[in-house]
Every structure is written in structure tokens, then in C-alpha cells.
Amino acid sequence: MPRIAVIPGDGIGLEVIREAVRVLEVVEARFAPGCELVHWDLGADRYLRDGITITDEEFASLADEHDAILLGALGDPRVPGNQHARDILLGLRFKLDLYVNYRPAVLFDPELSPLRDPGDIRLDVFRENTEGVYVNLGGTFKAGTRSEIAIQEDLNTWAGVERICRAAFEHAVTRGRSRVTLVDKANAMPAAGKLWRRVFGEVAGEFPSIETDAMYVDAMAMDLVRRPNRYEVIVTGNLFGDILSDLAAELVGGLGTAASANLHPGRHALFEPVHGSAPDIAGQGLANPMGAIASVVLMLEYLGHDDAARAVDDALHAAVDSGVRTADMGGSADTEEVGTWIAARISDASA
Ligand SMILES: NC(=O)c1ccc[n+]([C@@H]2O[C@H](COP(=O)([O-])OP(=O)(O)OC[C@H]3O[C@@H](n4cnc5c(N)ncnc54)[C@H](O)[C@@H]3O)[C@@H](O)[C@H]2O)c1
């Protein structure tokens, strides 16, 4: 019986996770996957109330006593520096060693793309999630002066590159994708580039049915706008993956619809919409819950409930097709109306 920790977090995280939970409840009624939802009070309110971000015991419980985590978003203007968000989000990412950041970008409707002729976009980005420039190695010398020196190191390990490449190739095989593209900046950053290219080639050798190619990140940014439907699976480092997956999300309908999975395959999994807590629209019913509901699709797939995942995905598509959209997608529905419509669609499909 899968145990799922539900962490709404801050701002619109609470609103979109309410709709994701509504969807999980109808999934339970129709498919009976037996998911137990455990609600967690982690976020700015708790930090401001108790002065605690997250304890070691809570990390241990999330790691050992749950099969998956469903997170809304963290970040609150009342907490300068967002210490709580860093502790919880980066804490989970690093302590659970969630090295895969998987972000699919699928175009539901050509109208949603800012591109004139987007074609059929179905792009899966595999971003390395625990290394690169985000490990915060380095420092500042003569800080605050005109002689200030800032060093931010880019850390890449053979093991780290190998496991993210393997995850991308395994995904391509299981999802019937035909090509994996490595994205790097091997011309200007040759030390990291040589490692990535060598290891990518070694791993590719184990998957002879999958075609491969490699692109520099600047060329890829250009090409994603020019002909995004050329790409299927992209594997890349932390920084480039962060940027390219936002670009990919925007090509298919924007931040409000984008879902992500943070995985240590076989061990830990955290699912979250890509967007943040959006304090500018929080509490107004304007938040698009589709990214959170699409994250539920990824979670159900991960837990092995493919029928339930397909039903939620079909209902999401149907909502877009029927014009049940929030303002960011050009519609007039509020957060709850979108969630309720999708939940009803899932229930009705079983009738
Ligand atoms: N994973 C996370 O928890 C996460 C990710 C990004 C940002 N943050 C935090 O969120 C806070 C706000 O950050 P930001 O403004 O840079 O990014 P954001 O994603 O919260 O918002 C960016 C813009 O997109 C809009 N938007 C975002 N999600 C939307 C949705 N579901 N429906 C409709 N519109 C949506 C917002 O209104 C805003 O105009 C900050 O504290 C930041 O640190 C958290």
C-alpha cells in the first residue's frame, strides 16, 4: 500500500495541491491503488510559528516511511532569504540523493505554444539534480569591494554522470523513444565536457537500439525554438537542465502546466509542479492546478498504476480541449473549477 507524503508548502502550493488531492481521491475510488495520503505541515507558516524548518526525524520519516512525496511549492515573502525553502527542498534533494530531475514537456494543443508552427512536441528532459554548479562549491574574496572575486565551481563526477545518462537511456527504452541527445558546453568547458561525452558514449553502447547525438547548450536553446519536435530525450547537467526545461515548459503552454519528478530510482521519489509559490496570485483562485495534477500522473506511473495515470492524463487533455483553463492559459476557470472538472471527468469515465 503506497504511502504518500503530501506537502502543500506555501502560497499557491496549497491551492494546487488541494486539487491534486481531489484527483487522487477519485483515482482511489475508481482504481483503488490503495494510496495512503499523509498530510505534512512543512512550510513558511510552520517556520514562522515554531522556528523550525524541518527536523532530522522528519527527513528520516520522509525517507524511510513513505513511498513518494507530493510537494506544492516553497517560498514566502515573509521569510527573507527563504531559509525554510532551502532547508526543505534542497535538503530533500540532497539527503534523499534525488539525482534525476525528469521534466516532460508535451504540447496538448498547438494554440498553447508561443511558436507559430510548433509541430508535435514531446520532449523529456533528464537533468542531473545533485551536482554541477548547484553544489555551491567556491567562495568570495574581497567581498563587497571593487576587487571582489567570486568562484563558483562546476562539480561533475563519473558516477554522477553515469547514473543520469543511464536513467535517460532506460527511460527511452521503456517509453519507446528512439533518440537521446546529450547537451553540454564541451567546447568552452572541456574538462566537464570530456567526462560527459565519454561516459555518455559508454552508457550508449549498452543501448544499441537508441540513436544518440550531442549538442552544445547554446545551439540547443536556438534549436528548441526553431524545431522542438526534433528532440525526444535530452540528458544534461544541473544548470543547463534547469534552463532548458523552463524553455521547454514555455514552448508547450507555460509554467502552470509543467510537472516534474525528482527521483532516486528504486529508492525515493518526489513529485512537484515546476512553478513556485507565486505570491503575486496566491489566495485568488488564479493558480493553474494542471502542473500539480500532471505531477500526480508521473507519481502514479512511478508507483506502477499505469491505468490510473492514463485516466488522469486523458482528463487533463480533455480539460484543455474543452476550454476548462485558468487565466494563464487564456481561460476563465478558477483553480477549483479546473480541479473539480478533471476529477469529475475521471469519475464519469468509469460510469
Ligand atoms: N520548487 C519550488 O518550490 C519553487 C520553484 C520556483 C520558485 N519557488 C519560490 O516561489 C516564490 C516565487 O517565485 P517566482 O515568482 O520566481 O516563480 P513562480 O513560479 O512562483 O511565479 C512566476 C510567475 O508565474 C506565475 N505562475 C506560477 N505558477 C503559476 C500557476 N500554477 N498558475 C498561474 N500562474 C502561475 C506567477 O504568478 C508569476 O507571475 C519564490 O519564493 C521562489 O523562491 C519555489
Q: Can you put this structure into words, describing what you see?
A:
With 351 residues, the protein is an alpha/beta fold. The protein folds into 2 domains: 1-102 and 255-351, 3-Layer(aba) Sandwich (Isopropylmalate Dehydrogenase); 114-251, Isopropylmalate Dehydrogenase. Helix content is 42%, strand content 19%. The protein has 11 helices and 12 strands. The strands form 2 sheets. The chain has a 10-stranded mixed beta sheet, with helices on both faces. Helix 1 (12-31) packs across helix 9 (290-302) and helix 1 crosses helix 10 (306-321). The longest helix has 20 residues, at 12-31. The chain is globular, with a radius of gyration of 20 Å. The relative contact order is 0.17. Nicotinamide-adenine-dinucleotide binds at residues 12, 16, 73-75, 82, 85, 89, 255-256, 272, 275-281, 287-288, 291, 326, 328.
Structural class: alpha/beta
Low-confidence stretches: none
The CATH class label of the largest domain is: Alpha Beta
Count of extended strands: 12
With strands numbered from the N-terminus, the spatial order across the biggest sheet is 2-1-3-12-11-4-5-10-8-9
CATH architecture title of the largest domain: 3-Layer(aba) Sandwich
Largest sheet entry: 10 strands, mixed
Instruction: Provide a count of the helices.
Output: 11
SSE order, one letter for each helix or strand: EHEHHEHEEEEHEHEHEHEEHHH
**Ligands, deduplicated:** nicotinamide-adenine-dinucleotide
Radius of gyration: 20 Å
Distance between the termini: 25 Å
Q: Mean pLDDT score, rounded?
A: 96
| Global morphology | globular
Q: Which features characterize this protein?
A:
single chain; 351 residues; Isopropylmalate Dehydrogenase; 2 domains; 10-stranded mixed β-sheet; two-stranded antiparallel ribbon; 11 helices; binds nicotinamide-adenine-dinucleotide
